[in-house]
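Kindly go through one protein, given below as sequence and tokens. The question is how this chain folds according to its tokens.

***
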Amino acid sequence: MESFQVREFNDPKRKPSLNSVLAQKERLKAAERIRRGETTDTAEANALANVDLDAVEPQYTPLEEQIMAENKAMSLVGHLGELRKRIIISAIAILVGFCVAYYYVDDLLAIIIAPAGKLYYMRPTEAFFTYMKVALVAGIIAASPIWLYEVWAFVIPALTKQEKQLTNWFLPFAIILFIMGILFSYALVLPVAIQFFIGFATDELQPLFSIGQYIDFVIAFVLPFGLIFELPIVMIIMAKLNLITSAFLRSKRKIFLFLAFVIGGLISPTPDMFSQTMIAMPMIILYEVSLWLVAKVMKK
């Protein structure tokens, strides 16, 4: 009888199943969160304490790669669907704001043209399109809390824990500063600018403002102040992320003074030095305020 002999068989190792691969990826992600200090779950930390983050991830079979590619495509479709929903909500909010603003457009125009007095329109359609433009801009500003929230809600899942904490207090203050910039420009800067330009009138040269051109001037003159007033928020966020310090801001003060007038010249609705200065001065003041906040409050 032939004696029994043990033979070796070259049985290739089976590749892991899709469920095991996905579970391993989740364990690696959770371990990475623990390493970065983004979780306080003690049980999860103890369970994942010995996970080797440098281990090579298992390979996928062709079927598994196909399934994961399909899941990724479905995820992309889901993101596009969410983006579409938030765009629709924002558009509806702006449309509602436009309708409400158009109902009160006469009152809005009375407020806007108060610094200039009596205006005229030179073309038959000029007054109509001016009414529409004022209502649209007012509607966008009135609906800003809604569409800004929709933008924030779409972006927030992709942010880290630190970035989420920044946005929680950043958005309310950003909206408040934007409104303060517009009110500051309308109440203090715009009347001075209008009177400056009217001051060039003589007996032979009288001002005759067109309502369309005047509204364009007001929008182009007022809205940049809303953006300029966001400077402290931008500086504080950069300091919070350790991108700048008060010493860095002091060293770049002269450069910023030059850039303030350059930016004032770029966004000014007219090429005169007066408008550029009126835009540059608030930027310089806000820069000094930001430097003080970074140095004294944040101590950086």
Notes: The mean pLDDT is 75.
